[in-house]
Amino acid sequence: MPIDVTCPNCGKRGRLPDGFQGGATCPACRTRFGVEGRVPPPVGPPKSAVPGPLVLGVRLGPRSRPRPGQVLLIAGFLVTGSLVVWFIAYMAYGVYGPNHIGDGYRARERGAYLEAEGHYKLALATEAREDDLDIAREGLALTYQKMGRHGEAVSLLEECVACQQRAVSAGRPGWRGEWAYVLLLEELATSEIALGRWADADLHLELSLRLQEQVQGRLMGAPSYIVRSQLCRGRGLYADADAFLVRGMGRLAAGLGTDNIAFAMCLEERAVLYREWRPDDKQPDAWEETARAIRSRFPNVPKKHRAGD
């Protein structure tokens, strides 16, 4: 918009362009005088802001542009969250997903042993990775144990143990670690005991106990001691069977304490042993009462997690 000016000497009026600043000369009397122009308003939004969103036809106020550091931080959170979600989904798919190993596990857990056998055999026929084949063999062996087919279970578990031995010797114990070796030896000994192969079971359980001491030290669980005790009890070696249970309970008490399911399992197994060994002894009643009290504090643990199951 032009600027209206008046000469202070002769009073002549005139116009100057918008934004003009400085001195002007009157064309009539040649008098110079100062002019204060208006600075035109900026066109468009400032560089530091962007128009706000359009809501119901009304443009909201401008919002600041995100800084580069904020963009990188948000992108990092999104990438990290996506990786975590992908990893959880991958692990869930591997264990519970629509595959023959997962289907076999679910079928065995609900007691559908023939269905589980079919799934595990399909896994053995279709899987290519050695770790997956090893898991399928072990799953099928545990299914055969539930079905009482211990001879077939032993053959499969011996393959698993041999595979794990090669991996440990080569310094690559597999994704499940050395602890899988311990569990395989215990599972193998369980079927060997059922078949009366006492010497083989004794050998494998002794190796299992030594491995546990190397892997966990004093924080050892109860299964190895319970199975070793059952081995001795099956041969009538009651004192040795009791000694293994006492040893296991001592290690548990020193490492994990006495308020845990593993300790309760040892108490229950010791009660079974004493009722066979010393039927007049009243201690088994007290042991079972203590075991029930411990189990009552762990209501979510299935009842099948007890000695001899």
Task: Please write out the topology.
Blueprint lengths: L2 E4 L6 E4 L5 E4 L6 E4 L13 E2 L3 E2 L2 E2 L3 E2 L3 H29 L3 H10 L3 H14 L3 H18 L2 H20 L9 H16 L3 H19 L6 H12 L3 H18 L5 H17 L5 H14 L13
Largest sheet: 2 strands, antiparallel
Q: How do the strands line up in the largest sheet? A: 1-2
Reading the helices and strands in chain order gives: EEEEEEEEHHHHHHHHHHH
Q: What is the 3D form?
A: elongated
Structural class: mainly alpha
The number of E-state strands comes to 8
Rg over CA atoms = 41 Å
- Termini separation comes to 97 Å
Spans of 5+ residues with little confidence (pLDDT < 50)?
304-309
Q: Percent range for helical residues?
A: 55-70%
Q: What integer is the average pLDDT?
A: 76
Number of H- or I-type helical stretches: 11
Question: Beta fraction of the residues?
Answer: 5-15%
